[in-house]
Amino acid sequence: MSTVDLGGGISRLTSERTVRALVVVAAVVLALDLVRRIYTGSLTLGTLGFYLWNGIVDGLVFGLAGIGLSMTYSILRFANFSHGDLLTTGAFSGWTVAYLIAGAGIADTSSRLLLRADGGAPPGQLDLQILGEPIAILAGLVVAALLTVLIALAIDRVVYRPLRDAGGIPLLIASVGVALALRYFIALVYTSQNRAVTASSPEWSSPVFFWTEGVNVHELTMVVSATVLMVGIHLLLQYTKLGTSMRAMADNRDLALITGIPTERVVRATWMIGAGLAGVAGYLIVLDRGTITINLGWFLLLLIFAAVILGGIGSIYGAIVGALIIGLTINVSLVWIPSDMNEIAAFGLMILVLLVRPQGLFGGVETA
Amino acid sequence: MARKIDRRDVLRGIGAAGVTGTIGLAGCLDGGGGNGNGNGNGNGNGEDEEAADAGNGEDTGNGNDTEGTETEAETENGTEETDGNETEDNGTDDNESEGNETGGNETAEDVEIDIGREVMVGVLQPTTGDLGDLGGPIRDGAILPGAQLEGTGLELDIREEDTQTDTEAGLSAAQALVDAGYPGITGAAASSTTIPVATDVLAPNQVVGISPASTAPGITDLEDDDFLFRTCPSDALQGEVMAELADEEGFETAASFHLNNDYGQQLSESFVSAFEELGGEVSQTVAFEAEQPSYSSVLETALADDPDLMIVIGYPASGQQIFRDYYADFDDGETTIMVTDGLRDDGLPGNVDNEMANVIGTAPLAAGPQVEAFTEMYEEEYGSSPGVFTAQAYDATAVLILANVAAGENDGTAVRDNIRAVANPEGEVVGPENLAQGVSMVADGEEVQYEGASSGVDFDDNGDMQAVTYEIFEFSMDGVETVDEIDYEA
């Protein structure tokens, strides 16, 4: 054992400790300040509760979108930049179907087919909200998932499969190309105009929701669906043969192949689940937001990546936790900093966590 | 900067309805020279158009290509040389025109223009992105003079570029126009795009820009070598209008919720200082980022102290989300919201799925001397009413065409030096009613002053408007309705 090594080890240890200590001190200071603000009345509990709720909602949005990304990363071994545009694909295809059904007899077929590209019948006229047109909205959800799966499989067949063994970087670059192609194809069909596709959400008052006068039903639908889907994925990975194969493949692909796992079939299943989740996520995000744009997924992609990397890329639980942290940071940081800085806070936190744990929060725990 | 409200008159339902009758862009069948002064005798109608087009097909072949590099002297003289073979026709033209050329009421023109070269104008507007909903109609307004002058024989080359409501995309689009040799550009729309475009692309390359929609006060004193003009007013005025309105309505506290760019920040500052001067209290000033997934938490911050009034300064794509989130979580029926020109979008209530009854707004109004002719022309061409800044865009392009013809060449500096000459007082009045005639007069070297659709279009030393009109509008499910007008003069 040489002294040089010892010295280096100690200094690395101390620098890591320093960062850790700084994080703890900062967290304590912020927590104390939060208490002070509530005590002095400069921040009401209602406002803080509102921030927390919005943080959880945003976090679930990122999480739902992030699971698919994390799955394709861990099993296919590349960062899929077209994931955001799969969200957009799901949102547009699903809402087109919802509009076609709900708008029958009210709006022109062309206006319904192109999702109001001509500014046709506004969603209020169709009463396109979850209690008004539940069947249309459910049909849209199913189509969003199915069509996104089909498109992802087609893209995999044409673009990714020939590149399967080419390594992460060519696949990544190819996925950026796929992302652009998807987005501008959607723009070509639907135009790049922002527009609303859902009517205002009904409010639901009930003593169960003691903290608020009325719950936004669309938001609640999104939250419940996201939670159910996350639990479902957990069960799938833990208790099914497919889930075991997926985890085996993520851990060691060669070993999985030797053990007789049909890798190409698992890859297809991964795409189907990942893309299906992306399509559903895009559809539900639009249900919650009410407006749709071709940049829907692309603008979310950076935050989704942040969430996934923060949680430990490749880990699905990491993606969920990371997403909640990012969502909460963006919203609760408004207590201290102006809104134009809140994404900086989220990314700053991500960098800080990665300094302490370069593999991400759940990165050490293999896998999925 | 002694600006004050001079006159305030209620003009309920002024709307877009105006002159009846049709407008046609009829040209002469006779091959004409630049010296044919046009007569505008009002006989142009749709039926004439085909014939006119046919006639002009011949005219374009009339030696223009070979004369592409002719010098100023020739253009000013009306290019007699090139059209020598058609003087008989021109003779009749002149006879007809004498009695009519000053009549301001013609709705159609019979003018032949041939200046022996192409007039190039670039149009740089956001047809996609955050401002896309407003940018499309503004672009339509900006290219309308092209449609109007079609069939007069004037070779007009209007090229459109999209800024995507994005500074980087705007800079490269502007560079593309500059590289292609366009000496004048109608654009851009967002102040945050216009400012870098002017300082980094237009001024260094000596290309002149007239923005129809960039209202940021900072543009007034921008170091642009006088290469940036605008046909819309500075928000230094709009902030005062908003504060006066808030004060009159009896609001004591206000919050400002504004887009985090030049337009949002500067208009917000202008409102805040004017409102505080009138004794109001500003509880929160919150900047927001464009096109975010959710604005709920940011709105919570802005509305923290229960202000009487919240001003929202932004663009439609973000506005849809902001108002959706507002009506989902915050609508207590007590807070009034005041928006500005950026959110004057007919489609907003439909997209928000709320009639937005608690929202009022201010915006520069197109109330120029010749607005009716413009409105009629716009409706005929596009089948919809003109929106915010469309008239300003028409005026910008029209002034660029006139200045270009006056300059005698596609040179940015020369165009710049002729803008005030053709737009400001002294000279024969020209405008949307008789644009072709105006171009023809300028080609003959006559002095003109452009009276626009949006305002009188008099540029001051900074390239700003000298007198403008604001409107106060409200929303309904049918769109935007003007309820009041306020005149401002420098």
TrEMBL record, chain A:
Pfam family, one: BPD_transp_2
Alphabetical UniProt keywords: Amino-acid transport, Cell inner membrane, Cell membrane, Membrane, Transmembrane, Transmembrane helix, Transport
Membrane-crossing segments per the record: 21-39, 51-74, 86-107, 135-155, 167-186, 220-237, 266-286, 292-310, 317-338, 344-365
Gene Ontology annotations for the cellular component aspect, listed alphabetically: plasma membrane
Membrane topology: Multi-pass membrane protein
GO biological process: one example: amino acid transport
Location in the cell: Cell membrane
Domain of life: Archaea
Similarity-based family: Belongs to the binding-protein-dependent transport system permease family. LivHM subfamily.
Protein name per the record: Branched-chain amino acid ABC transporter permease
Automatic annotation (TrEMBL), chain B:
Biased composition (Low complexity): 18-27, 53-66
CDD domains per the UniProt record, alphabetical: PBP1_ABC_ligand_binding-like
Compositional bias segments (type: Acidic residues): 67-99
Protein name: ABC transporter substrate-binding protein
Region (Disordered): 18-111
Ranges for domain Leucine-binding protein: 119-423
Comp. bias regions, Gly residues: 29-45
Alphabetical keyword list: Signal
Pfam families: Peripla_BP_6
Gene3D superfamilies hit by this protein: 3.40.50.2300
Keyword Phosphoprotein: no
